[in-house]
Amino acid sequence: MNAFRLAGDITHLISILVLLLKIYATKSCSGISLKTQELYAVVFLARYLDLFTDFISVYNSVMKVVFILSSVAIVWCMRRHRAVKRSYDKELDTFRHYYLVGACFVFALLVHEKFTFQEVFWAFSIYLEAVAIIPQLVLLQRSGNVDNLTGQYVFFLGAYRALYILNWIYRYFTEAKFSRWIACISGLVQTALYADFFYYYFLSWKNNAKLNLPA
Amino acid sequence: GRVVTEHDEL
């Protein structure tokens, strides 16, 4: 495993910790899209069907369990925890995420590595992850100003994607047989979605000002 | 046939 990949996994983990910290410390999920969180839970459940069939490393298995449990816990908290539930910006979080699930599943039926149950669900999870951030970005755009922890959550998620791209470039040049076009192209699309957010994030960082997204 | 990529990434 190269340094970019490790750094990518760690920033991914940090983003989840920042989100859990925000929910736990402030007992609030304002600014967080439940739809995006539900999509991530579906992404991890669909992708890690291989948890019991293909063993890669202890690191891999532990991370998979952490991602599944944390994403399910966040959804549970936002739906069931009394105080957290109250702070949910329901009227701002109106993106129709079921369409994304349907479209990604149809696309996975058409484009996959191999037509097997696991491979189709793996491709589906890759496509869905690429677009899962959209409801979150829409919510931030609508609410305009973004609190610190929410801004950092999205920043770390974006950093994770950017580091994965560096990881693929590194692997492309160092590994004899590197072919994972589904993951790479989806990853590029996913990272591109963050471009606008990153622009305003760096602007606010440079000016030492609160992060504001223009409507 | 084509070798299916091992999904060693998260």
Features:
heterodimer, A: 215 residues, 10 helices, globular, B: 10 residues, little secondary structure, rod-shaped
- Give a count of the beta strands of chain A, DSSP E runs of length 2 or more: 0
- The end-to-end span of chain A amounts to 41 Å
Percent of sequence in beta strands of chain B: under 5%
Rg calculated over all Cα atoms of chain B: 8 Å
**Overall pLDDT level of chain A:** 94
Q: What is the 3D form of chain B? A: rod-shaped
| Main sheet summary of chain A | none
Largest sheet of chain B: none
The parts of chain A where pLDDT drops under 50 for at least 5 residues are none
Proportion of strand residues of chain A: under 5%
Question: Oligomeric state of the chains?
Answer: heterodimer
What class, by secondary structure content of chain A? mainly alpha
Instruction: Note the overall shape of chain A.
Output: globular
Radius of gyration of chain A: 17 Å
Structure in words:
The complex is a heterodimer of chains A (215) and B (10). Chain A has 215 residues and is mainly alpha-helical. Chain A has ten helices and no strands. In chain A, helix 1 packs parallel to helix 3 and helix 2 packs antiparallel against helix 6. Chain A is globular and about 45 Å long. The model of chain A has no long low-confidence stretch (mean pLDDT 94). Chain B is low in regular secondary structure and 10 residues long. Chain B has no helix or strand. The termini of chain B are far apart.
Summarize the structure.
The complex is a heterodimer of chains A (215) and B (10). With 215 residues, chain A is mainly α.
List the helices and strands and how they pair.
The complex is a heterodimer of chains A (215) and B (10).
Chain A: H1 3-26, H2 34-47, H3 58-80, H4 82-86, H5 97-110, H6 117-131, H7 134-143, H8 148-174, H9 181-193, H10 195-206
Helix pairs in contact in A: 1-3, 1-8, 2-3, 2-6, 5-6, 6-9, 8-9
Chain B: no helix or strand
